[in-house]
Amino acid sequence: IDPACTNPVVADRRTRAQKLLDGTIEGIKLAARTGKLPMNGGLKPQLFISTTETDLQHRTTRGRPGGIAFLPYSGPQPLALLDTELCDADVTTMILGNGQDILNVGRTQRLFTTAQRKILIARDKGCSFPHCRTHALATEAHHIIPWTEGGPTNVSSGCLLCAYHHHLIHNRDWAVELIHGVPWFTPPYKLDPHQTKLRNTYHHGLPHT
Questions:
Q1: Where residue 185 falls among pLDDT bands split at 50, 70, 90?
Q2: In the listed set 94, 109, 124, which residue is the last one of a domain according to the structure?
Q3: Chain-centroid distance, C-alpha 103
Q4: Are residues 66 and 125 located together in one domain of the fold?
Q5: 109: part of which helix (H) or strand (E)?
Q6: Quick one: what percent of the chain has pLDDT higher than 90?
Q7: pTM flag (> 0.70)
Q8: CA distance 160 to 192
């Protein structure tokens, strides 16, 4: 976040401890993306998330309680906490019957390709959230229309966000839209009753908006 930012709508409210944890998590993610970590059971580092189709649909419906996911070693977790992981990851769909028999296993899909990320980096130049100064190599590709809601995986439906703002977008009711190729962000009503659209100007050398 721009340390000179005085806009309370986009101010960074994290504590020092939260910032340190976010930095640690980002370091782990950068290491995982190198492809040089050791294999485990013949697989690269992965997160296995198990949930039902009903819970997944509830998670993507505003005004309804989110579903529950099950993770190895940690048990049930709110699906809302995993939105960011579902947004930019390899996803394997596995359909289970009523008796937990495996009915169908879909192929793993890479959501944003390397080529698409390069285009997003060239366009956004860094985290596209207003006033954020995080450089492009420390960002994640975000689906403006969530992939779990049928959103396409293409440049016209994506933008770059740092880990902190990626979680914020998924969990704080911010809206994102592309206007002439630029990501614009609409804050939730409780933060700004006028819901004034904002964009990142730092990476493009423009005056603050």
A1: very high
A2: 109
A3: 29
A4: no
A5: strand 109-110
A6: 21
A7: no
A8: 23
